[in-house]
Amino acid sequence: EEDMSGWDRIRELYEKPSMERDVVERVARMSFLGGFLVGGSNGYLLAKQQYEMANKGRKYLSPSDAIKRRLDYAIVRFSMKGFSMGVKAALISGSITLLSTHTAAVSRHFSAFYFPAFSGPLAVLLHSVGGVFAFPTGMMGVAKAFGLGISSGLTLSAVCGLYALSIDRSVDSAYWHVKKEYEEVLEEEGSFEKRVEEVIAEQNVWRYQAVKIVKEEEDNKMKMLD
Known about the structure:
One of its GO terms (biological process) is mitochondrial respiratory chain complex I assembly. It is a multi-pass membrane protein. By secondary structure, the protein is mostly helical. The chain has helices at residues 6-13, 19-54, 63-107, 114-130, 139-166, 171-203, 207-225. Helix 2 runs antiparallel to helix 3 (63-107) and helix 3 (63-107) crosses helix 4 (114-130). The chain is flat, with a radius of gyration of 24 Å.
């Protein structure tokens, strides 16, 4: 691996199960879900106020019709605001995680300061170009976005540092230790999933039945080893 170029190391991450790729996907999904719920909730409350103001004095066919129309409007606004906020949250957190982990892969060294190093400039870029943050334009908005990015990155750095201390390792050593264990789990999950697909094809059973069969096979192997 020492003789591999940075590009080869990046390509290797996508040729086999890797912690870097899996973590980026998981962080992006979790961030989207969190952003969707928070953004949707805020959008729902705002939609309720806007609807009542815009339709004040309007006559409806019945009380149930009024409730239905208000609910339909709120659901649409919830979905729109939730999706928008979810995409922004996934973009921000996913980008920071991707840049940090892939930089470690290229350099073969991980530093907890990768997070603030990327989160600060990235926050400024997303605010300036995409208007992701609800900050005013101009230098004040840029400063607020940069501060938010740096503070978020430093929080992640602190988490990495505390974990490294808890297992009595350097941050770099702790990272590669976690990566090794993480990818061992990924390989086990991949092997299990492959066997499940084989059982489905061979025995023409439903997935839950195949999972049960594979688990029983593994239990029997463990009993034989004991």
